[in-house]
Design goal:
The chain is an alpha+beta fold and 320 residues long. It has eleven helices and six strands. Helix 7 runs antiparallel to helix 11 and helix 8 packs antiparallel against helix 10.
């Protein structure tokens, strides 16, 4: 409630101090006695327009100051905290005070103070719904605002302390409810992860993979896709190495005999005989391998499809 109103050099008023009591307070007087000026000053105090034409004629400054006894009020306390103002006297006990003062100079310089701290007009307008409701005929905004009904009912019933207790317990319940939901959600997510991992492990086990299998299959696919070329290379290499009359093995055998004969005249060449014999044995082994490999080459579309499918399965598992 508004407990005190100080007005200085405002309109026709030089100095005025008005104290209000609990309950109904009436301002009476004849028309033109200045009742509306007091209401206008109160409007300025809670964020209304404060222009230089409201400064009393001949004066340099005007001011309006009000003392509000707001009692315990969480919303007011939250607004003041958000503005960085001290709230140590707000929301504690039944007679917490809020002091608001507006000053204006003839040069148009305006100042706003809340609890003796320099503040802003925007803060006054934010506090206004909780301090004063000024209205004319048919303009009872607060009564028509459904958001204020519960607050008015609680204030009339004197339930401020109980309201705080309920709010505190609700916050505790809400925090516990959120924690419980998070635990349930985490448990569900963990179970989904376990199920997913089990499925993937099952896929890997059923695939019966072996180390290096993909490399071996890639090599087999290249061979199957180029079977004609591989077969021709084997046949040509075998002929050049062993089968032709002038093959590498035949020429190496001739060279070996010549070196043996030469060693009869120059003993130092005997050291080469063993190396030539090893080279001939190696080439003969290569030739037999080429022939055996070529004879085992058979084109199988079914095997090629099988290799392709297996490689595709391994690639899919790699991506996963």
């Amino acid at each position: 409630m508004l407990a005190l109103l100080n007005i200085s050099n405002f309109a026709l008023i030089s100095e005025l101090r008005v104290e209000f009591e609990r309950g109904l307070n009436l301002l009476t007087g004849e028309t033109g006695s200045g009742k509306s000026i007091i209401v206008d000053a109160l409007g300025v105090l809670i964020g209304g327009r404060f222009s230089t034409d409201l400064i009393r004629s001949g004066e340099e400054h005007a001011s309006v100051e009000g003392l509000f006894q707001i009692g315990a009020h969480e919303q007011v306390e939250s607004i003041l905290e958000g503005a960085g103002l001290d709230v140590s006297g707000v929301g504690v006990g039944d007679h917490a005070d809020l002091v608001i003062r507006r000053e204006l100079s003839s040069g148009g310089r305006s100042k706003v103070f809340v609890n003796n701290r320099l503040s802003t007009l925007a803060l006054l307008r934010e506090l206004r719904p909780f301090l004063v409701d000024i209205h004319g005929q048919g303009e009872q905004q607060t009564l028509f605002d459904t958001e204020t009904h519960l607050e008015l009912l609680d204030a009339f019933a004197g339930l401020a302390v109980l309201k705080q207790e309920v709010a505190a317990r609700y916050r505790v319940w809400a925090n516990l409810s959120r924690e419980l939901s998070a635990l349930r959600r985490n448990e569900s997510e963990k179970q989904n992860l376990i199920d997913g991992l089990r499925f993937q492990v099952g896929e890997l086990e059923s695939a019966h993979l072996s180390a290096g299998e993909d490399e071996r299959l890639e090599e087999e696919r290249r061979r199957l896709n180029n079977l004609e070329k591989v077969s021709a290379l084997c046949a040509d290499a075998y002929d050049r190495t062993y089968e032709e009359q002038d093959s590498t093995v035949a020429r190496l055998s001739l060279l070996e005999r010549q070196i043996e004969e030469l060693a009869g005249y120059e003993s130092s060449y005997r050291n080469y005989s063993e190396g030539l014999a090893s080279a001939r044995a190696l080439l003969e082994d290569l030739a037999h391998t080429l022939r055996g490999f070529a004879e085992g080459l058979t084109y199988s579309p079914a095997r090629l499809a099988e290799v392709d499918n297996r490689l595709a399965e391994i690639a899919r598992l790699k991506r996963k």
